[in-house]
Amino acid sequence: MTRNVHSTVEVRLSEEVADALAEGRAVVTLESNVITHGLRYPDNAATAHRVEEAVRSGGAVPATVAVDHGVIRVGMSAADIERFASTPGIPKVSARDLPVALARGGMGALTVASSLIAADLAGIAFFASAGIGGVHRGAETSMDISSDLVQFTRSRVAVVCAGAKKILDLGLTMEYLETHSVPVVSYRSDDFPAFYCVSSGLASPCRVDDDMVIARAVENHWALGNHSSFLITTPVDAEKAVDDAEVDQAIDEAMSAARRDGVRGNAITKYLMRAVDAATQGRSSQANMAVLISTARTGGRLAAAHARHLAEVGSPATAGASSPAPVPAAAGTAHALPALGR
After folding, report:
1. Which residues on neighbouring strands pair with residue 74, listed in sequence order?
2. Catalytic residue selected from 31, 52, 82, 219
3. 175 is catalytic
């Protein structure tokens, strides 16, 4: 079934996701950009299934999100994943692009920022991603700041990730999150991780080792009247990580080369990413896969703890939020959306 969350926006939940939400079970949102703008087919489809299985191993139901024929689809079937993985030219749709992508009625792969919108509309409390965007190096002149950070200030979703890539200005990224009062909690780690590096070299503002403490903290954040995300970082497994010093050296050398070659502004980011990939001789790609799996598994585990907490207290602190009435479903569609308040 479907629900109109506004006069023109339609969100369609898979039967499995709708049933899980209705029964108070844990659900974790996953982005579809990983399918369309990551590995080549059929490796991209296989990776998407592995990430969903990692969520299930943590105790939650995966809900990969995408734009499909003008609808926000929440929860993709195996056939859906295969179709997205094998169709060339599917555009990347961030928060800025979402209104036009829905109006055009085609297919679109959701990024971190747009996935948060989808999760919030569907009433899903958790989202897992390998890594988030941040403040880019040189942002003091380029103003290049990821829309992920802006969306964190707008969507009530707990985000589980492995921090952000070292090619970004992670110090300024942390400052941005602090300025906007977005909680940053490191799960069983003292440091803020850097994607496929265990540590960014920056201490985390807060370390929490207990799943239920995180669950209570997430709900407390929204109960205090905040309408922003709650960021939970978890580092990649140490044995699968890329050495910090190796990445730092590659970045330093690439920055010097960029200045020499006149590379500046938004172009620096891709320049640095290519340099790190080359310096690590493909090991960064393998570590990328490990990050996708580990964050999904941890996301499932923490979402399950959050669901247990809500069951214990009887109702979520944000329950009672107004939501539009469900509309009748077309034949063969999934269940109606539950109330949008968590």
Report:
1. 13, 65
2. 31
3. no
* Secondary structure (H, E, C), 202-233: EECCCEECCHHHHHHHHHHHHHCCCCCCEEEE
What is the rounded CA–CA span in Å between residue 189 and residue 147? 26
CB-CB contact of 342 with 157 (8 Å): no
Residue position matching structure tokens 């590096």: 197
- Given the residues 82, 165, 166, 219, select the one marked as catalytic: 165
Q: What pTM did the predictor assign?
A: 0.88
Asked which of 58-62, 185-189, 258-262, 307-311 is least confident by mean pLDDT, the reply is 258-262
CB atoms within 10 A of CB 308: 17
pLDDT above 60: residue 317: no
CA dihedral 127, 124, 68, 92 (to 10 degrees): -30
* Active site (annotated) includes residue 165: yes
Strands annotated E in 118-162: 126-128, 158-161
Task: Indicate whether 241 pLDDT > 50.
Answer: yes
Identify whether 42 is preceded by a cis peptide bond (ω within 30 of 0): yes
For residues 50 and 47, what is the distance between their CA atoms, to the nearest angstrom?
Answer: 5
Helices (H), 262-318: 267-279, 283-313
Q: Which of 192, 185, 175 is nearest to 207 (CA)?
A: 185
Q: What amino acid occupies position 123?
A: G
